[in-house]
Amino acid sequence: MELRQLEKFYPGFRFFFAGKEELSIADKKSIDQFFSAHLPNYCINCAAYTAVDKAETEMGPAYNINALAVGVLAKACKKFQAKFFHISTDYVFAGNGSRPYAEVDATSPLNFYGYSKLRGEEKALKENAEIIILRTSWVYSSFGKNFVKTMLRLMAEKESISVVDDQYGSPTYAADLAGAIMQIIAKDNFVPGVYHYCNNGIINWHQFATAIKEFTQSNCLVNAISTAGYPTPAKRPYYSSLETQKFRHTFNIIIPDWKESLKKCLAILIKQGN
After folding, report:
1. Cβ of 3: how many Cβ atoms within 10 Å?
2. Does this model's pTM top 0.90?
3. What are the chain's domains?
4. pLDDT tens digit string along 10-44?
């Protein structure tokens, strides 16, 4: 949806948006028909199975969308000479480090979601080396389900909430990521490779929630708890911040600070009445 919001700012491009109802990305025949009909110059794959905990039991659907379908899309892009952007995740890393992960660091996902996303990267690169893979983290938006919208809802409903304070990473405003992709396309500066993109700054989830509380002047009490105090079916990395130097230097794109972007998203959500 964030890319759709940018369409009006790029009148020189014709956009084609296809949800799962219009296009099954795991179906090679369906993909070939779509590419034959529209002959896109670029393909941006925003589709993903993102229910991290459910992926531990719904392995089939997660693998089909996050791994198999990505290979199909990458192959179609090579066949039809479309430049392919694929969105991946910080969850391909184990999260046991103490510095932001670089693109060359060893991958070792802790959960099936991360495993399926890593397999998707591998299948895409096997089918088509001339692609851009963008690993991102802690994505939120004024659209869909995400941490920011969940926190706003809980803070409106409850007097106090508890949020883990021992998992560290970097939030990413989806509008910033969408804007960065469109800058690459508009400049015709497509440099294949694996890149990391997230907003500047490293925080934990409790700090993220506290910032939402402060920016919205909520009276809800935000308590800090450990990961052990909030067990989930899927293990989470304790530290998964991403190093973005390669992206910034390659594409000459400025990445905003996480607080600046959070304020922009909250302003939209508040205006919408969320």
Report:
1. 18
2. yes
3. 2-145+171-201+240-257 (3.40.50.720)
4. 999 999 998 877 788 878 888 999 999 999 999 99
